[in-house]
Amino acid sequence: MTGIDRGYYWGRSGYPHVSSVISTQQGRIVGDGMLDAVRIGGALLTLLLGSVVFFAGGLGSSVPVQSDGSLLADWDESEVEHYSCLRTGDVVTVDGNLDEPVWQRVRKSPRFVDMISGKPGFFDTRAAAVWDDQRLYIAFWVDEPFVSAKVTERDATIFRENDVEVFIDGIDSYYEFEINALNTIYEVFFIWKDAYARKFNIPEFDVLSADAFTFGGNHDRGVETFWRGTHPRGSRWAFPTWDLPGLQTAVKVEGSINLDTDIDRGWTVEIAFPWAGMKHLAGGRSLPPNHGDEWRIFFGRFEKLPVGNGVVSPAWSWGRIGDGDNHIPERFTRVDFSKEVIR
Length: 343
What we know:
Elements: E1 20-25, H1 32-38, H2 40-50, E2 54-55, E3 58-59, H3 70-73, E4 82-87, H4 101-105, E5 113-114, E6 125-131, E7 135-143, E8 163-169, E9 173-179, E10 185-192, H5 193-200, E11 213-215, E12 236-239, E13 248-254, E14 266-274, E15 294-302, E16 305-307, E17 310-313, E18 315-317, E19 333-341
Parallel strand pairs: 1-13, 4-6, 4-19
Antiparallel strand pairs: 2-3, 2-17, 5-18, 6-7, 7-14, 8-9, 8-15, 9-10, 10-12, 11-12, 13-14, 15-18, 15-19, 16-17
């Protein structure tokens, strides 16, 4: 989801929380966190003058909204990021603590970039992934001088505040996951309408239920692209009460959450996505993956920064998406699964 505050968004479920842990480490942090805080003024100027930014209540973008099917035709495949996801031989404990050996040895992403322009985000964000036969594990390192989070209700619209996000593409479907610094999560399962009758017309995805919605992407309320959005495949069915079975999440805050009188280092996130819960995302691929299998995954971060009387809402991701709509699986990072074990 982008930084747009869509107050009319679909209803929210009251499902209980998944198994999760949250821990905080209180303290005043100096060093890199302080340096980032000092540079906020210059970074915001860079945002306003040199990169595309979002504003609460609307989207300011120099990228034209494409409604003629050229969204993908104009995309250069060479811009897509690639990542080799190695196996872990260690037991991964999902507690938000990324000091474990596996996360110390893994290859991290580059510094996240502006989702539209591709320029470096001014707060450092990194991600990494490992896997075993039971789960896909994803970690985020989020530098943030003033860690904040208020939303505590599961499946509330977390994208209204600071979060990190993972989208997993299933070829004819995809899954959206969001999490904030309080370890509150938001999940949605999307099915492309052109594939629904062929593959997903089952009770689990009953489009006549009160919890099924249509979604055309982040531009589906634009005058030229109303309802349909800009993607050539058109609209999706959205199921915001769907939960990925066996999901585990944890967050660790390095600083003082919701306290702006000191400088924080940031927060880390650890997530375990069970392969057994991804049968609707496999798209004919093996679960767990075979060596050399490729999945498309979006890794993103969305921020709300008060500036004067307004809010600047930058969006950062592993690689450039080139659009204010991050619901474009063709532009997600290509994750290639390897049987090689992390050493």
